[in-house]
Structure formats: structure tokens, C-alpha cells
Write a structure and sequence with these properties.
The protein has 194 residues and is of the alpha/beta class. The chain has a single domain, classed as 3-Layer(aba) Sandwich (Glutaredoxin), CATH 3.40.30.10. Helices cover 39% and strands 18% of the residues. The protein has a seven-stranded mixed beta sheet with strand order 2-1-5-4-3-6-7, covered by helices on one side. Strand 1 and strand 2 form a beta hairpin. Helix 2 crosses helix 3 and helix 3 packs across helix 4. It is globular, with a radius of gyration of 20 Å. The termini are far apart. Keywords: Cytochrome c-type biogenesis, Redox-active center. It is found in: Cell envelope. One of its GO terms (biological process) is cytochrome complex assembly. InterPro entries: Redoxin, Thioredoxin-like_sf, Thioredoxin_CS, Thioredoxin_domain, Thioredoxin_ResA/DsbE_sf.
């Protein structure tokens, strides 16, 4: 009689849920997978304005470096629309939004008017590049080569910024978001066509 009570459906489901919750707390990949699933059902949608933002504040300048030691500044990218994402390999929300950023990147990577900057906030290029390659993403990886201004990155990652061709901040999202939805793609495309 005791074994039947121990292995009841209620106890088994409680044990499974407990294991799942523990995994979510200790394993960033599990938490990221859950968040990706929630994105697919419509949660974590980026807040997109109805219209293209009017004249906005100029983005402060900063420098970036790639794995080859090449550096460039944000101001050198004027004339291009910039998708700037600050992230880290250990961050579950960052991991959760990466597939949608990769999808957006693949859609625009041939467009000479668009630049994608995925910036590892830990400053560990090799680790970030290994993560991107392991996940089979095509995203370019950079690290900050100067101080990151608070106007670009506050206190939370992931943070995504869009700069228009004039170098103005026209979009800012703190926290994970699904950048593969049609509404965001349409909003992003308006700046490229402008």
C-alpha cells in the first residue's frame, strides 16, 4: 500500500515539476529554451511604436573590436541603420532572443545600409565566438573597445538599440524580445528604406 502512494501520479508530477524548476534555476540553456517557447506563443514581443520615431537623440560614440583586432566607432557607421545588441553567453534571456536576432540578421546581412553589432558585455571575444559557432548562428561578434555609455547600456542585458542613418537612437529594448515578428521587421525596414 505504501509503494502505491509513493508512486502516485500526483507525486510523480510533483517530482518532475521540482526537477524542471531546479534545472531552470541552475541551467541557462533550459531557461533560454523555455523563454524561446514563450516567444513562439506571443510573449516577449518587442514594444514597437506605430510610426517611425521623429528626430531623436544622437547616440554617444563608442568603439568596438572584432576578433582580428580591428576597431571602429559607432560614429563611423553614420549612413547605415545599426542594430546594436548587448548580451552575454551566461544570460538566459540573451540566449532566448538570439535565434530571432540571427533570423533578422540573415534577412538583412547582404544589405549594405544595415550593420548588426552583437556585443559581448563580458569582453571575452573568444568565448562569445565559440558560443555563436556552437549554436550555428551567423551573427558577427564584437566586444567593447571603450567605455559603454549609459545611454546605450543601462544596468540590464540584453539591451537592443536601433540607430537610424543619422546616428540617432530610434529604438531601445531592455530585456529579451522576439525580433523575428512581422511587426518588428516592418518597423526595422522603414528605417532602411528611409
Amino acid at each position: 500500500m505504501g509503494w502505491k502512494r509513493l508512486f502516485s501520479l500526483s507525486n510523480i508530477s510533483t517530482a518532475v515539476m521540482t526537477v524542471f524548476l531546479v534545472l531552470m534555476l541552475v541551467n541557462p540553456s533550459v531557461k533560454a529554451a523555455v523563454m524561446q517557447g514563450l516567444m513562439k506563443v506571443g510573449l516577449f514581443q518587442p514594444g514597437v511604436p506605430e510610426e517611425v520615431a521623429p528626430e531623436s537623440k544622437m547616440a554617444p560614440d563608442m568603439a568596438f573590436a572584432d576578433g582580428e583586432g580591428n576597431t571602429f566607432t559607432l560614429s563611423s557607421l553614420k549612413g547605415k541603420v545599426v542594430f546594436l545588441n548587448f548580451w552575454a553567453t551566461w544570460c538566459p534571456p540573451c540566449r532566448a532572443e538570439m535565434p530571432s536576432i540571427n533570423s533578422l540578421y540573415k534577412q538583412y546581412k547582404a544589405d549594405k545600409n544595415v550593420v548588426f553589432l552583437t556585443v559581448d558585455t563580458d569582453g571575452n571575444y573568444k568565448k562569445a565566438k565559440r558560443f555563436i559557432e556552437k549554436q550555428q548562428y551567423e551573427l558577427p561578434v564584437y566586444v567593447a573597445d571603450s567605455r559603454i555609455p549609459e545611454e546605450l547600456l543601462g544596468k540590464s542585458i540584453p539591451t537592443t538599440i536601433i540607430l537610424n542613418k543619422k546616428g540617432q537612437i530610434v529604438y531601445r529594448q531592455e530585456g529579451a524580445a522576439d525580433y523575428g515578428n512581422d511587426r518588428f521587421i516592418d518597423y526595422f525596414g522603414k528605417y532602411i528604406r528611409k
